[in-house]
Design brief:
Strands 1-2-7-6-5-4-3 form a seven-stranded mixed β-sheet, sandwiched between helices. It is built from six helices and seven strands. By secondary structure, the protein is α+β, with helices and mostly antiparallel strands. It has one domain.
């Protein structure tokens, strides 16, 4: 089941405040404490880095910011299939229409396809989308995104896309999937948000 990482502007403001105090990964080098296992610490750090990356896109996203638990992430296509089955659970025809591409050289954004891309390719898409956005055109914002991205890469993240998503203005959007194979979770980030308002 999907769960929104942000519940309203208060959560966004809180996360932004926490992020402004971070110089690097939120829990990089942290040690387990208060009964928290190393595995729990790693999962929390992964989720925090995803939130940091999401915030660099801006606060105007209509889609994304969700996390989905999947039964398996091995092979990685299982994570994609689990995500698709959950997010499109009310539309069996869409689920059947989906195709999957591992190691794609294209970041699909206009059809029922989910796939993975290389880390370099994912960063190029993120950086390009940030540079094209009116709301997030600062070099500092790109630098923050790069820190979060590098932290996720070191944590073993697999990056992908959902080509069937649409933005708030009903146009295709670059919809990033950040897969945590160890935690069996798929996080979503809409990279090119827009609205009809």
């Amino acid at each position: 089941m999907g769960r929104n990482l942000f519940n309203g502007s208060a959560a966004i403001a809180l996360t932004a405040a926490l992020m402004s105090g971070c110089s690097g990964a939120p829990t990089e080098g942290a040690q387990p404490s208060d009964g928290q296992t190393e595995d729990e610490l790693q999962k929390n750090a992964f989720a925090s880095s995803v939130r940091h990356l999401l915030l660099t896109v801006g606060e105007d996203f209509q889609h994304g910011g969700d996390v989905f638990s999947v039964a398996s992430a091995t092979p990685i296509e299982n994570a994609l299939r689990g995500y698709v089955a959950t997010i499109y659970k009310d539309d069996p025809d869409t689920i059947k229409a989906f195709t999957y591409k591992i190691g794609s050289h294209v970041f699909e954004s206009d059809g029922p396809i989910a796939g993975t891309v290389s880390n370099n390719f994912a960063w190029n898409v993120i950086e390009n989308d940030l540079n094209m956005s009116d709301a997030t055109d600062s070099k500092a914002n790109v630098a923050k995104a790069k820190k979060a991205f590098d932290t996720l890469t070191r944590a073993g993240a697999v990056f992908g896309f959902d080509g069937s998503q649409q933005s708030g203005c009903a146009a295709p959007t670059d919809f990033l999937l950040v897969i945590d194979p160890k935690g069996k979770k798929v996080y979503t980030i809409e990279l090119t948000p827009c609205s009809e308002s």
